[in-house]
Amino acid sequence: xxxxxxxxxxxxxxxxxxxxxxxxxxxxxxxxxxxxxxxxxxxxxxxxxxxxxxxxxxxxxxxxxxxxxxxxxxxxxxxxxxxxxxxxxxxxxxxxxxxxxxxxxxxxxxxxxxxxxxxxxxxxxxxxxxxxxxxxxxxxxxxxxxxxxxxxxxxxxxxxxxxxxxxxxxxxxxxx
Length: 176
Known about the structure:
Structural class: mainly alpha
Number of domains: 1
Order of helices and strands: HHHHHHH
Mean pLDDT: 75
Helix content: 55-70%
Shape: globular
Low-confidence stretches: none
Number of strands: 0
């Protein structure tokens, strides 16, 4: 018999290695259950049950993912460039559109002067996503991978593409 079987005061838990973090916890399981349930709720709004088309569903899912995982990422890695870069991109969109609304003359006729620029911003989502993937690969190589930051990056990219595509379509008169 070993000593821990004879001594009831002996600690029977195995020693933890100093560099290893726990991969499972009830809190993480509850968090990701809530994230998946919320995302499924957003996505399950179908055309038969609602007037919402698939494109606005994508924007709603992106918004939900960005808010849920963005808050979690800011709490966990508040000083990380991997979190602040997409957050800055989120701030850029409303600031830029607000400046366009304030500075631009009101349109009385069809005018697509900014349509080319908006289409370039939508296509610019491709290098934006590549950069976010590079950031994630660097995190994986450092051993600091975070699923919440990965989902935050995915939602940020979806939101970027959807927002600039909608703005472009509005500028060229697709909603008239």
